[in-house]
Structures are given as structure tokens and as C-alpha cells.
Amino acid sequence: MFDLRRGVPVVVSSATDSESSVLVFAIESIGEQRLLDLAEMAGNPAALTVTGHRLRAMGHDSGLDSASFDLQDGAAANVQAVYDAAASADVTSQDLLSPPRAASRLEQAGLALLRRALLVPSALNAPIHPSRQDAIDSAIGSGQLLRISVDQAEKCFELGDGMLRRISEADVPLSESEQTRFVLFREPDGMREHLAVLIGSPEDWPGAVPVRLHSACLTGDLFASLRCDCGEQLTRGVARIRELGGGVLLYLAQEGRGIGLANKLRAYALQDDGLDTVEADQNLGFSEDERRYGVAVDMLRALDIDRIRLLTNNPTKLRALANGGIEVHGTDRLYGQVTPQNLRYLSAKARRSGHLLEELLNEPGA
Fold it and tell me: Do residues 210 and 242 make contact, with C-beta atoms less than 8 angstroms apart?
């Protein structure tokens, strides 16, 4: 994933046939020469693979979960246009040289790696020709390229029991709660670090521990962006947990509903062009919500917490924790302030994602 982020292709190989492999390259790093180099390295022309969401944004209503376009000589400009248009909804079928086909398992695995790496989920996949296999094996042996099996790539979102590591901790007094301790957890692939904010003394916590799952939002939490209510939810969440006798706020590294800051800003630009928050994410190729809450379950278990009172407006969080074996004994709503700048965003969350915001959005002046 780090190689993909820095513009280096990786080899994804079949689980059953070591000779069946593709070179996967992130479309974000492509240019005409890079596309030619990729085809030369693999001995085959590359195909462009996109998610079903991106495919539909491009005007194809095929019902496919993912699809590939076989590219021919001279396709570099079209591929670049597709990437440039990841910030618009204007690319349609005429911008590519072939009709879409169902993506292969290897191609789909490449998309999973890109999503995990917080890159636009559009990949260039070049099947490795037998005549190039020795050169590829040599590059892998010398460390110039990395190889991953399709099984490993498909499981890149899975942590595995006990693999989340508790790294460091310290007392960090906050304005909303002076008795607060930060505990940092790191995922095994090193891509993300999450914080458990322990509020009050664990010995004094209620039997059903008040818990808030807060996804990181740099723009809202740090810069007080008016496009969302995240910053207010964060400070009010800490204050509410303190009022309830103490508990835990899990600060999860899932910026932009799990798509990362770069893609979140791309989505903002799309929203400024008229799309709502869900449509913008899907136009980039993501689902309406890329967050996964298994990490929250693991963090709570690491803290010996299995009975909670959940502060949330999002039923998905409740279901995810319950499915992970956490007993949820009641929920509390937690609102920020409705502003002219965030009303459309909040309305879309309620209408498109099922967030429980009726009381907030029905307030006078909202």
C-alpha cells in the first residue's frame, strides 16, 4: 500500500497459479510515459479497473460491482482524462476505447488495495506475460517490486484478533474534562492509528460505560469548518461522557467516512458542483460509507469494556458494535449546531444514510 501511494506498481498473484499475475498501478500517479512503462514491464497493455459506483457515474448502468476497460495504444490521454474527471461527473463511455467488462478477481483485489491505501479506487492492471515473468521475479527478488497474493489483498481490511497494538498512553487534560487519558492503538499494517480517550476514572464509570465513536475530521475538529458539525460533536461528546460519570471516546482515524483527507477534499469540490455528500463519494468510486467499526470493538475489548451506553445518531454504529459482541444498553443522541453551511450535509446524512437527525433538523430555524 505504501508503494502504491508513492507511485510504484505492485504484483498481485493468483492463489492457485503463480504464473497468473497482474501489475497494479494507482491511477493517481499515471502519465503517458508511466502507462507505456507499465505495459513494457508487464509485456501486456494495461486495463483500467473502476468500482461499480464510479462506473455508474461514468454513465454505465450495468449492475457490475467493478468493471475493467481494456486499453489500446494511445489510451494514455483518455486514462488521464478519467483521473482528472474523478473530480467531476462528466466522463462517459466515449472517453474510453472499449466497452466495460466484469473485472477479474485479480483486478478487484487491486481496487481493494487502493481503497485501503486511501487512494482513488481506480487501478491500472497489466497482466504479466510469460515472457516477462523472469524479469518480474528478478525485480521482486531484488526488492524493486513487492508481490502479494490475491487472498492477502482481498483481506487487507481485516485486522485479525489480537493484531491491534496498544502503543502508548498519557494523561492529557482537556477543557471539557481535566481527568482524561489518551491511549493510542496502531493497526498491524501501520496505515492508521486510533485514540481511546478515557474520561474520568475507570473505577467510577457506570456499569454500562458511556461510549462515543468519533471519526476524525481535520477540517471540523481542528479548523472548526462550517461544512459539518464534527467539531461540536467532539467537544459535546467529551462533556456529555463526563456528565454521565465518565467513559470512553474512541477517536477513529476514518477521515471523510473512511476515504481519507485527499479524497474528502475532492468530494467537497464535487459537492460545490451540486452533488450531495453521498453522491460525491460514489462519483469518486467509493461506497456511501467506507468506515469499518471492527477496530472500535477491538479497542473496547482491549480496555476490558463489553457493556456500553452509546452516544450516537448513527444506527450503523450501534449494529456494528452489537454484531461484534458489545452489549449496548441504551443510546443517547448527540447533536451539533445546524448552520446554513452544513444543513445540506446533515440533511443528506439523514435522508441517504439513515442518521437519526429528525429532532435536530425539525427545530425552528433549521
Answer: no
